[in-house]
Amino acid sequence: MELFAAIQTRSSAARLAQPGPSWEDIDRLLQAAARAPDHGRLKPWRLVVLKDSVREAFTAAAAEAKRAILPGMTAEQLAAEREKMGRSPTIVVIGCAVNRDQTKIPEIEQVVAAGAAAQNLFLAAHDLGYGVMWKTGAAAYDPAVKASVGLRPDDHIVAIMHLGTRSK
Ligand SMILES: Cc1cc2nc3c(=O)[nH]c(=O)nc-3n(C[C@H](O)[C@H](O)[C@H](O)COP(=O)(O)O)c2cc1C
User: Fold this and answer.
1) 98: left (phi over 0), alpha (psi -120 to 50) or beta
2) Which H, E and C letters describe 33-51, residue by residue?
3) Which of 62, 112, 118, 126 could form a cystine bridge with 94, CB 3.0-4.6 A?
4) 89 CB less than 6 Å from ligand 1?
5) In a domain, 10, yes or no
């Protein structure tokens, strides 16, 4: 797909079905993400493909983060929230591990670089024919959720990218 066509036809996939991207395609997506422009070559992005125990920990913490802003949530609603995220064929979390050991590149520029990585990944996935939904929500700002993917409380999650096959 030509680049302009990919940009112009990109849209969010409201519903995703199995399968998610193959590991070969995930590798290509991560490489596309890591080609983002990056002031100072800090490579501040962190690209985490959720699998097995990390996915379990992430979805559990994400559901709890939602309950923290909606304290009335019942145990069933909490379980449904986890189940909803569990249905996503593939989730890639794109974080920004802010490098504060230097003073030249401000935090916002590092976050923007991570955002550019997220957009590269989105467009690349679209180009390969996958459906994509870029989400954040309460989970993205929660320290326990960040910890589940190896980020510190003052790092950032810029995208919780859901990937799969577009479903009508
Ligand atoms: C940083 C960021 C965070 C977002 N978080 C959410 C979200 O948590 N929930 C949601 O429904 N849409 C979220 N969106 C918006 C959708 O991903 C989508 O871009 C938007 O609905 C517009 O639809 P389109 O992508 O088809 O143009 C977010 C977008 C961005 C860029």
Assistant:
1) beta
2) HCCCCCHHHCCCEEEEECC
3) 118
4) no
5) no
pTM over 0.70? The answer is yes
* DSSP bridge partners of 131: 164
Q: Which of 4, 16, 6, 5 is nearest to 127 (CA)?
A: 6
Hey, whose CA ends up nearest to atom 10 of ligand 1? 135
Q: How distant, in Å, are the alpha carbons of 18, 65, 80, 100, 124 from that of 139?
A: 23, 5, 15, 23, 25
- CATH code for the domain in which residue 61 is found: 3.40.109.10
Q: Is the CB of 166 under 6 A from ligand 1?
A: no
What residues contact 122, with CB distance under 8 A and at least 6 apart? 10, 132, 134, 161
What backbone phi and psi angles, to 5 degrees, belong to 45? -70, 150
Residue with tokens 């003073």: 103
For the stretch 56-103, pLDDT in tens is 999 999 999 999 999 899 999 999 988 988 899 999 999 999 999 999
In a domain, 8, yes or no: no
